[in-house]
Design goal:
Length: 371
């Protein structure tokens, strides 16, 4: 094999024993998950996901995987942090491949380091798959870079709830070129006031983004003096990220992300799960949030004795009412030791273009398709 300058890739083969993988799902757009994160998800036995992890990604888990919401939102905790860690370790000790799916990046205010420490202390193998943090990704979708030549050469990310934690330097936050505030929907006015008190100019540009990178993303711009009022007037709420600094003014010039026609619409798809994927993909491509709620279950009778007898019996016409019927009929022919040549001399009718297309997939052309 010829030499290459490319660095060796990380070994991402699925572990064969109990293992925990902390996966960053990104800020909202499911397409922003990394290749390594998607691979871990597709090989998981157990998925413990945050409330903000994109729902579309949960469909990537294997059919038999245990998928559980352990998310914590303000005033609504599905599980405590201790309960999450206990469940994660319990499943891993049982030999399961556990994916802890987190919004954004596990190590940016995601408590990923705490969960990794719990694994280390318990002797459970643990790896991390970084993700796109909302501190950068949400603003990128709003046309706001956190650094820009001539405007900002450094940025700082802080938890907006750290007002009185005794650790965060709000003086440094007031002085940095670009400041990003996470989890600041409830106390944005208080944060702005603190920054002004620490010396930041009230007229400093600012912008807030709700549901960044999702089709229902909303952006409000203003200044440090009025951003909280503008956010309230627009009705923006959590999850919300705010940027303070000259780069916020670039939103008007560099904004590129336009909501799709179905942005923010909640749509339930009631088709059987086996047949819904194409429709779900089309709806999500137009910005809809799709919930799969199958109201029917398809049970194939292909190969049953009575069906084998029926397909072998003489007939002038075979009429197919659905693509499912086409597939079952062809499977039954196979089970009877026959193939499409057994249909020689019979005429075929198909109800609908999808049924006709299913026949075409077997090299058969219907003689009649009603309009």
């Amino acid at each position: 094999m010829p030499p290459t300058d490319d660095p060796p890739t990380t070994d991402r083969r699925p572990p064969t024993t109990g293992h925990v993988t902390l996966v960053g799902a990104g800020p909202g757009d499911p397409g922003l998950i990394t290749v390594a994160g998607l691979e871990a998800l597709r090989n998981a036995d157990v998925v413990l996901h945050d409330a903000l992890a994109p729902r579309a990604l949960l469909r990537e888990a294997p059919a038999g995987a245990e998928v559980r919401n352990v998310g914590k939102r303000a005033g609504a905790h599905a599980a405590t942090q201790d309960e999450i860690e206990a469940l994660m370790l319990e499943r891993a000790r049982a030999g399961k491949r556990v994916v802890r799916l987190k919004g954004g990046d596990p190590f940016v205010f995601g408590r990923g380091s705490e969960e990794m420490r719990a694994c280390r202390e318990a002797g459970v193998p643990c790896t991390v798959v970084p993700g796109v943090t909302s501190a950068i990704g949400a603003f990128a979708y709003a046309g706001i870079p956190v650094t820009h030549r001539g405007l900002s050469s450094a940025f700082m990310v802080i938890n907006a709830r750290s007002m009185n934690d005794g650790v965060t330097s709000w003086r440094a936050a007031a002085e940095v070129d670009t400041l990003v505030l996470l989890m600041g929907a409830e106390n944005l006015a208080e944060c702005a006031g603190r920054l002004v008190a620490e010396g930041r100019a009230p007229e400093t540009p600012a912008a807030s983004v709700q549901w960044g990178t999702r089709p229902d993303q909303r952006v409000v711009t203003g200044t440090l003096a009025d951003i909280a009022d503008r956010v309230a007037e627009a009705g923006l709420s959590a999850p919300l990220v705010t940027v303070v600094g000259p780069v916020a003014e670039l939103a008007g010039e560099l904004a590129w992300f336009d909501p799709a026609p179905l942005a923010g619409r909640q749509i339930a798809v009631t088709r059987s799960r086996a047949q819904s994927s194409e429709l779900v993909d089309l709806l999500e491509a137009e910005g809809a949030f799709v919930t799969e709620t199958p109201t029917i279950e398809l049970v194939s009778r292909a190969g049953s004795a009575d069906l084998c007898e029926a397909v072998a019996a003489p007939a002038d016409w075979w009429a197919f009412s659905s693509a499912n019927g086409v597939h079952v009929a062809m499977e039954t022919l196979t089970a009877a030791g026959l193939d499409s040549r057994a249909l020689a001399g019979r005429r075929l009718a198909a109800v609908g273009e999808a049924t006709a297309a299913a026949l075409a997939g077997y090299g058969l052309r219907p003689d009649f398709v009603p309009e």
